[in-house]
TrEMBL record:
This protein's name: CG5550
GO MF term (any one): carbohydrate binding
A GO cellular-component term linked to this record: extracellular space
Domain Fibrinogen C-terminal: 24-244, 251-468
Function: Lectin involved in innate immunity. Agglutinates all types of human erythrocytes, Gram-positive and Gram-negative bacteria. Has a stronger agglutinating activity towards Gram-negative bacteria than towards Gram-positive bacteria. Specifically recognizes acetyl group-containing substances on agglutinated cells. The hemagglutinating activity was inhibited by EDTA, acetyl group-containing mono- and disaccharides, N-acetyl derivatives of amino acids, other acetyl group-containing substances, propionamide and benzamide.
Biological source species: Drosophila busckii (Fruit fly)
Presence of the UniProt keyword Disulfide bond in the record: yes
CDD domains, per the entry: FReD
Alphabetical UniProt keywords: Disulfide bond, Signal
Pfam family membership, one: Fibrinogen_C
Length: 468
């Protein structure tokens, strides 16, 4: 009995004396979003050397940045106060999935553990996004007052608004470490930053929601090199990758021509174009069929690509640009809404004869308008006018009957078109290879005014070109 008591007492003492911190001791975590192979946005646990694990937000979706980025600061709305004290900035604050600052101590640990890059992403209120990328980034420790030690080379399209802050110490309203002889920059600019005298960026400034007045100059979330010091962005995000991220520069300086005509595409082939405010995309430009500057919106060359497709397929488009394809109703709407276009329809039969139909105007509506053929100008050409009967009609597919017939024209004619009741042309019909039987009437790629309702052409190509 006595022996047992002694044993228990010893055990108790031993446990109490040991510095037991059971923090998931068996598990070790990756040391970066990259090492975590975080290919989806979300919160992850990381661990540096043998330190305690901590949570971060890994970003994998920012256009051009690639995956593997760790978000160190983010602003998305005005719900979080960023005008905070030194100790708040040391520790970090906010909500990992929303507005937050990671904390200067952790930032120092992260950036001294491995070489770093920095990615700053800004979004303005017109929906434009720009970025600044620095290929080396390091923040000092507390005894260095968290100096912005390294910045490396800049690339990007937002401007190099952090350079003026290089080698500066961090300042908050209650710890003035800036280079201004008289001012307390943090206090005057309602922020916390690596102030010089004082700044060309202030991303921890006030969330002021766009352009603001003279009286507040510099107090917003400023990135001067892009929209000046009276503009506070809609969202801001600062990220580091810890070990090189999967950085794929998106040719940020380049803007592409808005059409094949503007691209002065003198050879047939694939070109990149870009509509105002949109992402670049590839199109096929044709320079041989009817002169330069035509953009191919539809082509049929053989039976390999199925054109009897549903609504969403026609919305998105399908088929390879170099073969039989349809550009997609969404894109076609955008193109014809961007500037006035003319339309050229090229037809070739199986004897090698070529004819065409040209319309002086061509535009289709958006999704809400059921992509209606709301503009079709005057006809000219040798193939006959098989399209005017379709003018003003909504687009129909077999699963979205928007035609004027009591029948489902798309189903009846195995196509997808601006059917009236029903049609004199059916260029998305089946590739039937020439003249076909009565039982299939109208189901081929018909252009009635030239070879009738029972003839399916060898080649069809529809093209648009800006009028001006
Ligand atoms: C801070 O960093 C410097 C080097 O930049 C180093 O000499 C110093 O020991 C560090 N201080 C602490 C407390 O880690
Ligand atoms: C923006 O700030 C400048 C000073 O930098 C000032 O002259 C100008 O009037 C301000 N613009 C607006 C819209 O307040
Ligand atoms: C439309 O067709 C595509 C493939 O051709 C298919 O993935 C999709 O589910 C279809 N949509 C509807 C609404 O039937
Ligand atoms: C069409 O334009 C809208 C904005 O005007 C854009 O959101 C959309 O992505 C564009 N669609 C295509 C397929 O280009
Ligand atoms: C096209 O669709 C709209 C919306 O449903 C409808 O108001 C309009 O009458 C249709 N047009 C034709 C020509 O059927
Ligand atoms: C073509 O269609 C017409 C009716 O439009 C029909 O009379 C004729 O027999 C058809 N020709 C062939 C070869 O089937």
């Amino acid at each position: 009995m006595r022996a047992v008591q002694v044993f228990l007492a010893i055990l108790f003492v031993a446990v109490a004396a040991a510095d037991v911190q059971p923090i998931e001791p068996f598990k070790s975590y990756p040391n970066s979003c990259k090492a975590a192979k975080a290919k989806k946005d979300g919160i992850r646990k990381l661990q540096l050397n043998s330190g305690a694990p901590f949570q971060v937000f890994c970003d994998a979706k920012t256009p051009g940045a690639g995956w593997g980025w760790l978000v160190i600061q983010r602003r998305v709305d005005n719900r979080e106060n960023f005008f905070r004290s030194w100790s708040n900035y040391q520790q970090g604050f906010g909500d990992l999935a929303g507005n937050y600052f990671i904390g200067l101590d952790l930032l120092n640990e992260l950036t001294s553990d491995q070489p770093q890059e920095l990615w700053v992403e800004l979004l303005d209120y017109s929906g434009q996004t720009r970025y600044a990328h620095y290929d080396n980034f390091a923040v000092g420790n507390e005894s260095n007052l968290y100096t912005l030690n390294k910045l490396g080379l800049y690339t990007g399209n937002a401007g190099d608004a952090l350079r003026y802050q290089e080698n500066m110490k961090f300042s908050t309203f209650d710890r003035d470490n800036d280079m201004s002889p008289k001012k307390n920059c943090a206090s005057e600019l309602s922020g916390a930053w690596w102030y010089n005298d004082c700044m060309t960026s202030n991303l921890n400034g006030l969330y002021l929601g766009g352009e603001y007045g003279n009286d507040l100059t510099g107090r917003g979330m400023v990135w001067k090199e892009w929209l000046g010091d009276n503009y506070s962005y809609k969202t801001v995000k600062m990220m580091i990758p810890l070990a090189a991220a999967d950085f794929q520069p998106i040719e940020p300086y380049k803007t592409y021509p808005s059409s094949c005509k503007a691209a002065k595409a003198k050879k047939d082939g694939i070109y990149k174009i870009q509509l105002k405010g949109g992402e670049p995309f590839e199109v096929y430009c044709d320079a041989k069929t009817a002169g330069v500057g035509w953009l191919v919106i539809q082509r049929r060359v053989d039976a390999n690509i199925n054109f009897f497709r549903n609504w969403s397929s026609y919305q998105q488009g399908f088929g390879p640009l170099t073969n039989s394809f349809f550009i997609g109703l969404n894109r076609l709407h955008n193109l014809t809404a961007a500037e006035p276009q003319e339309l050229y329809v090229h037809l070739e039969d199986f004897t090698g004869q070529k004819r065409f139909a040209k319309y002086s105007d061509f535009a289709i509506g958006n999704e809400a308008n059921l992509y209606s053929l709301y503009k079709l100008g005057n006809f000219a050409g040798s193939a006959g006018d098989a399209f005017s009967y379709q003018r003003g009609m909504n687009f129909s597919t077999y699963d979205r009957d928007n035609d004027r017939s009591i029948h489902n024209c798309a189903a009846q004619f195995s196509g997808a078109w601006w059917y009236n009741s029903c049609m004199y042309s059916n260029l998305n019909g089946q590739y039937l290879g020439g003249e076909y039987g009565r039982d299939l009437e109208g189901r081929g790629m018909a252009w009635v005014q030239w070879l009738g309702i029972n003839y399916s052409y060898k080649t069809v190509q529809m093209m648009i070109r800006p009028k001006n």
